Amino acid sequence: MKNWMLVLVVVVAIASRFIITAGPAWANFSPLGALALYAGYHHFWKGWIATAVGVVLSNIVINNVLYSQYYDGFSWGIDANVILFLIISVMGQFKSESAFTLNIASSLIFFVLSNILVWAGTMYTHDAKGFIECYTAALPFLGNTLLSQFVFGGMFFGFHKVYISNAHPVM
């Protein structure tokens, strides 16, 4: 019965990715980090699959509908971000850490690793100056990453707690 909860979380995460259409102020306000952490925490290998499916399906829609001008032909939505979110899903297995610590750590790991990929691309020079410029330009996005991690993480973990407490009431 726990599987329907995972499916619901994936559907909410995919739908919530479209918050970005509200404007640039919402950039990086995404449920995918929270999905990855929740799925890894409560569902282990199913969580990895759910995370990959959530990222790829939402990327397919976003890349081919919202950002089609940046792609030559159809985009399957598979990119390095799938791996980054799988890393966060694996972090969900560290259940000895507090949810607060896991949320902060997963946001920071995503920030560091995703911006290394940006720096390694073609937008910045591959030297110390380009590295600093890349991370300086990325700092405004970190706030939305952290905020969304806590908003969606609270939702997903909260829904799970309510579901478990209703499924197994204390006598």
Number of domains: 1
Unreliable runs: none
How many β-strand runs?
0
Separation, N- and C-terminal Cα atoms: 21 Å
Q: Pairing-aware structural class of the strands and helices? A: mainly alpha
**What value does the Rg take, in angstroms?**
17 Å
> What is the N-to-C succession of helices and strands?
HHHHH
Mean pLDDT: 84
* Oligomer status: single chain
Please give the share of residues in helix. Answer: over 70%
What does it look like?
The chain is mostly helical. It has one domain. It has helices at residues 2-16, 32-66, 80-91, 99-120, 128-167. Helix 2 (32-66) packs across helix 5, helix 3 packs antiparallel against helix 4 (99-120) and helix 4 packs antiparallel against helix 5 (128-167). The longest helix has 40 residues, at 128-167.
Fold blueprint:
Blueprint: H1 2-16, H2 32-66, H3 80-91, H4 99-120, H5 128-167
Helix pairs in contact: 1-2, 2-3, 2-5, 3-4, 4-5
Task: Give a short summary of the structure.
The chain has 171 residues and is mainly alpha-helical. The protein has helices at 2-16, 32-66, 80-91, 99-120, 128-167. It is globular.
Keywords:
171 residues, globular, mainly alpha
